[in-house]
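Lab manual, section 2.4: Encoding a predicted structure.

Procedure: take the sequence of the chain (268 residues), apply the prediction step described in section 2.3, and record the output as structure tokens. A sample record is shown.
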Amino acid sequence: MSTLVDAGRLAVGTLSVLPVRPPRRVDGAVGGVAMLLAPAVGLVLAALVAVPAGVLTGPLERPPLLVAVLVVGALAFLTRAMHADGLADVADGLGSGRTGEEALAVMKRSDIGPFGVVTLLVALLAQVAATAVLLAADPLLGAAALGVAVVLGRTTLPWLCTPAYPAARPGGLGALVAGRVERPAAAVAVALVVALLAVGAWSVTAGHDDRSRWLVAAGLGLVVGQGCARGLASRCVRRFGGVTGDVYGAAVETAVTATLVATALVAA
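Recorded output:
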């Protein structure tokens, strides 16, 4: 029970700015359970941004584009922008053309290079545009799609912490949680998240004229988002020799962006 409590505190404290007591014990076992709980943290974050987005564009009839900017900014604040930072660092590492330790050294620099700037800018603009399109199409379903994307972004972490993705270096978050989640546990966690989201999507679209289109859009968003995150993670393993905390953040940000964009392209 103490492991679960410490894992919950580690997950919340690492993946959000929400106040929580620090875990009394931090080791590989706690880290592995924390990554299994990552989608639950995503659910909390989703509620914090999706509900206001639906209210602002629905009953209050505020401009979807403005709301989308506020939502993306709020999500960055709620996560200390660490996923965005990870995406920028990984883009610099991959864009450097280097491999192994040389690429990792580029990622550890405090400044952001041109590849990182452009990648981060495109990702944030894509998130804002896709969110605005979804909210304009339907405030309720658009907000729900936003929440789904946020949860699915954190659903990358259980499978990314399986032995298939080893740590690239001995220190940092990557070394703490890399390979700590068994494949069956990751599969169960992901399946549970997908099942819960499917039930939620089926319920929230009930009676909607374009129900089938929104359901197809949600399914496509899931496949594209997780596929892009897996592709990025596999590329990082080949180039860097494994994963790091930056790779985890980049995978989360990539999944959120790709899920939103794919969903918007079909649903709108």
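Check your result against the sample. The chain is about 75% helix and 0% strand.
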